[in-house]
Write the structure tokens for this entry.
Amino acid sequence: MRYYAGIDLGGTNIAAGIVDETGQIVGRAIVPTGAERGYGAVVRTMAETVNLAASAAGIDRDSVGSIGVGVPGAVDLDKVRVVEAPNLAWRDVALASELEALCGKKTILGNDADCAVLAETACGAARGRKSAVMLTLGTGVGGGVIIDGRIFSGCGPGGLEPGHMTLVHGGEPCSCGNRGCVEMYASASALIRRTKRAMDMHPDSLMWEKSGGGLSIDGKTAFEAAKSGDKWAKCVIDEYISYVASAVSGLVNIFRPEIVIIGGGIAGQGDYFIKPLNAAVKSRCYANKLISPPETVAAALGNDAGIIGAAMLCMQKEDIK
Ligand SMILES: [Zn+2]
């Protein structure tokens, strides 16, 4: 059995795993990123985290073939430099060669959203499919695309940014400088904003009870109140699903994937979210009477997708066999 190391590099934590040829994580370690310590210290911690994961897996570090890293930002076309990672305050750093020097292992970089869709397509919710679109609904909206078994990230560094397609012309201002971006309406943060607005307008809503009197409003609040029959929460959810469906159907019309994967905590709402989302997506896809629109499913690998996908960067050099 061959093993690879996958590192999911986040602004908060560095999660490393030893992944076998079948995509199983056989050992893992997670440590705080400590980005405020500076680039060099974080790279050393990344190398140490790989060693900890190898110890947890009970394998010798020499058994690890190579290292893949999912970066929260843009990587160059050769997959060796981080062009920019705003959450880490990194700009144009030679991460792959510096990890190689510390670990003695060939290292390849990838965008974290690309790693997630690669993992879900290889051994998760889209297993066996050759084309897939993934949207992750979190603080923002990220995403990736697989075409013919390969990551499609366009030309030039930076990759795809489906969260910054315009969904509402002249809509809410986004951190990217534009207005009305998908992530201003379809992210978990957007759902929480709309939940708060609805609560302010409707003091009788069950959303107050479900959020401890407004003290713990999160992405589940409106879902839980709607499931208990609250009509104001149902309005929030219906509107949210409608926005997500608009974003998804736009991507389906462009890429015509075999399957659409939804990641992030919201996807954990299961059929209560995914079923109406499917219905809305299908009704909005072009020529849906003639061409069967793809199924939209919840991601299956959760946070592990980042580690597995990073390992797969080296395992398959982005090809899904
Ligand atoms: Zn934007």
Remarks:
- Residues 231-255 form the longest helix (25 residues).
